[in-house]
Amino acid sequence: MTEFDKTFLTKVRQAGLWEMPAARLAQTHASSEAIKRAGMHVLDGHSKLDQLVREDSAALNVPIPDQPTAEQQGWIDQLENVRGRAFDQLFVDLLRASHGKVFITIGEVRAATKNALIRRLATQANDTVQDHMDVLEDTGLVTDATLDNVAASIPK
C-alpha cells in the first residue's frame, strides 16, 4: 500500500459522501427528467463504489472518513437551497467538474498501483465516473466554463 493508494481510498469515499446526498436532492429539486436520471446514475454508481471502498478499507486496515469535506458539505448546502433550473445547472456544474478532476487521479492510480484491491477499485471507479460524465453531458447543460475549470486543474 502506497500513500497514493490510501489517498485514493479516501477520495473515493469522500466522493460518495457528498454525491449520494446531491443525487437524492436531484429527485426532489430538479426540473428536468434528464437531471433526475443523472441523479439516479450517480446514486446507483456511488452506492456500489461506497460499498466496495468500505470493504477494501477494512480489508487493508486503512481508515476512511465518515463525513464529506467542508467544501463538499458546502456544495450539498448550495444544492439544498435551489430548485428547478437553477438546481439543474448547479448540479451539473458541480458534479461534472468533480468527476472530470477525479478521472485523472483514477487513471494514475490504476496505472501504477501494485495492490490488487486498489486496482479493482480503480477499475470500478473509472467505469462509474465515465458513466456519470456521460449522463451529465447528456443533459445538455455542461458548459465550456465547466470544462475549462477541469482543464485548468490538470497538471501540465
The number of helical segments is 6
Average the pLDDT over all residues and give the rounded result.
93
What is the overall silhouette?
A: globular
| Straight-line distance between termini | 27 Å
Query: CATH superfamily assignment?
Result: Ferritin, core subunit, four-helix bundle
The major pleated sheet works out as: none
Structural class: mainly alpha
- Cα gyration radius (Å): 15 Å
Low-confidence parts:
none
Descriptive notes:
The protein is mainly α. The chain has a single domain (3-153), classed as Ferritin, CATH 1.20.1260. The chain has six helices and no strands. The longest helix is centred in the middle third of the chain and has 29 residues, at 84-112. The model has no long low-confidence stretch (mean pLDDT 93).
Layout of secondary structure:
Layout: H1 3-29, H2 33-60, H3 70-80, H4 84-112, H5 116-137, H6 144-153
Task: From the structure above, extract its key features.
156 residues, globular, Ferritin, mainly alpha
Report a brief summary of the structure.
This protein has 156 residues and is mostly helical.
